[in-house]
Amino acid sequence: MGEGRGITMTGNEDNYIALMACILSNKSADAAIKSIFNSRDGSENMGRPLAPINQDTVSMAEMQKTMTYKQVGEQFGLSAGAVFVRIKRYKLRMLGVPSS
After folding, report:
1. Closest CA relative to residue 83, chosen from 58, 100, 66
2. What does the pLDDT look like over 9-64, one tens digit per residue?
3. pTM of this prediction exceeds 0.90
4. What is the Cα Rg of the chain in Å?
5. Which residues fall within 8 angstroms of residue 75, CB to CB, at 6 or more apart?
6. For residues 26 and 24, what is the distance between their CA atoms, to the nearest angstrom?
7. Distance between terminal CA atoms of the chain?
């Protein structure tokens, strides 16, 4: 059914997720996103220590400002989807939202 069709990632997906979280929870963007990623007891990252930030991921985020996810992925031997997920998690972490 979906064969031959690629997924186009624009980089705006994070914005749509944040907007949806705000609308559904009737909270500010920060509060809505934090409530999604916090554990039930309110502790961030569910008690696990945060792993160090991979320098490749920082480089990917910088490169993605002027390149497509596919082009960045080719530089690192990754798919466009893998690059997208790494950059998304990196951006969320920079906002103080731990990933699950």
Report:
1. 58
2. 566 666 777 777 778 777 777 777 666 665 555 555 544 556 677 899 999 999 99
3. no
4. 15
5. 63
6. 6
7. 31
In this predicted structure, what is the pLDDT of residue 47? Answer: 47
Per-residue pLDDT band at 4 (split at 50, 70, 90): very low
DSSP per residue over the chain, as a string? --TTPPPP--S-HHHHHHHHHHHHHTS-HHHHHHHHHS-TTS-GGGGPPPPPPPHHHHHHHHHTTTS-HHHHHHHHT--HHHHHHHHHHHHHHHTT----
What dihedral angle (degrees, nearest 10) is formed by the CA atoms of 84, 90, 96, 97? 40
